[in-house]
Amino acid sequence: TALGPRSYTTLRDEAVKLFNSLQQLELERDPVPLMQGVLQTCLDLPPLVDEIYCQLVKQTTEPPAPGGQGDLHYWQLLTCMSCTFLPSPPVLRFLRFHLDRRSRFPTSEMAKYACFIREALGKTKGRECVPSLEEILVLMRRQEMICTVHCPGAPACSVAISSHTTAEESPLVAFVSPQVARELVSRLGLSQSPNLFALYEQSRRREQPVGSATLLADVLTRFE
Questions:
Q1: Backbone φ, ψ for residue 135 (5° rounding)
Q2: Could you tell me which Pfam families the record lists for this protein (predicted)?
Q3: Other CB atoms within 10 Å distance of the CB of residue 224
């Protein structure tokens, strides 16, 4: 049976393919494309989200080489999963127990990932798109993305966003002081308009406002 917008077989077969991808992940020098492929499959086939979470918990429990490349890649993929999907409540409880066990050793690199993942799970609400290659790279380092925003009458500015930042929560709101905002409104002839601030995404084919609840990371993925 074909499932999802891409060409898939049965859920069972796709689960086996994902397991093989996780095994391959241990040896990949550049794991980013493989990670994005796993995330895309989970987005297209939501029933597999719990499966991947369970597999990753298993792979990060008493690994043969703690802190090695394979162990690190599994934690990095788990980080990307936590910023993209929420597992079902039973799996979420199991996952949090797993993360709490790792947090008992706060100086280890894996404990830092565990803390990051636990915090991310409290903010994740679901994504329209999987993380872009750039987002995956920064998540692997537990960092924020830097995006460029062009302002009317002002130079472009760089703002840091997380996987959970919405347009309404954009740091640009804090970047534009009330005085500057009033000046921009006056110059643009919007003094009588109730809409004082909005972000737009512009490409070769379209220009449209970004909804206040839209995740900026999804916007960046669409550009990629």
A1: -65, -40
A2: MyTH4, RA_2
A3: 11
**Chain centroid offset of residue 141 CA:** 13
- For the whole prediction, is pTM greater than 0.85? no
pLDDT in tens, 172-212: 544 444 444 555 556 556 666 665 556 667 766 777 777 77
The domain spans of the chain are 11-140, 145-223
145-223: what fold?
A: Ubiquitin-like (UB roll) (3.10.20)
Q: What is the mean pLDDT of residues 100-114?
A: 84
Band the pLDDT of 68: cuts 50, 70, 90.
Answer: very high
Q: Are 35 and 76 in contact (CB under 8 A)?
A: yes
Residue 14 tokens, joined: 């796709």
